[in-house]
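Input sequence (318 aa), recorded before submission:
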Amino acid sequence: MLCSTGEFSNTASTCGHVPVLLNETLELISPKEGDKILDATFGGGGHSKALLKDTNNVTVVAIDRDPEASIRAENMRAEYGESFRFYSANFSNLLELAESEFNAVLFDFGLSSFQLDTAERGFSFRMDAPADMRMNPESGLSAAEFLETSDEEGLIRAIRNYGQEKRWRRVVNAIIQARGTGSLQRTGSLANLIAKAVGVNRIRRSFVHPATRSFQGIRIEINKELSAIERGLPAAFDRLLPGGVLVAISFHSLEDRIVKRFCRRMAGRPEHSADMRVQQERHEQAKMISTRPILPSEEEIIHNPRSRSARLRAIKRL
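Predicted structure, token format:
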């Protein structure tokens, strides 16, 4: 979407609604008259708008599970009419989407600036608010509810596996001990709890807030983000026309690993170093547009610091 999955130091600037790697995305998709494009992560609509505004007779189909995204989509529909269609849905459920035969599909994972900068959504510890963190506030457990009720295995998965927090045991123990005290209910007190558990030495050595990794892991867990990517990518690829392009922008290593392995699998290549399948067992269905991720330029990072961790990968269906 528009920003990285983490947080920033107090010295980092806060960007507004700026689509990440926009020029690179437009160059890869290269919309032509008559094309039909799927924006699987509508967010603030930046990429959708760019795809529509400079090319005649392009249709953009957009989806997003965030109810607030549907409100922004109404403005797009008013501006572009039948050239824009929006569905309120999670891209993990793309198999249920009636639309197909796309010339391009775009995924832009992570948070939009609208989500991160709206205090009551509870994604950020820069602003004290209820600890919610749900992509769809109308569905599932909030972060606070998860932290209060999850078994230890769920907490370890969130903090160690998804947050990649090295001092995960301290954080998990602190969360369990804080249950029922109210400390898990708001972003400010939760961030302070985690910072205390991680320890002062880490704070001094890094400009990244010590709660960043844990907040990321909790958010990934309650929104089931990685499993959504694992289901969404092949479903989107199946809806691509021959010659169609699939573009995916990731913001942390766990997302990028899934995208990388999917791209290599579709290209008939080994997915990872332990993939020992013989060539006859591989099926080449796509061409990798680049073997390495495309990164934001220094100029983009200066103008939009939240783009700094973005990684773009793309494949073209044969």
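Checked by second reader. The first strand starts at residue 36 and ends at 39.
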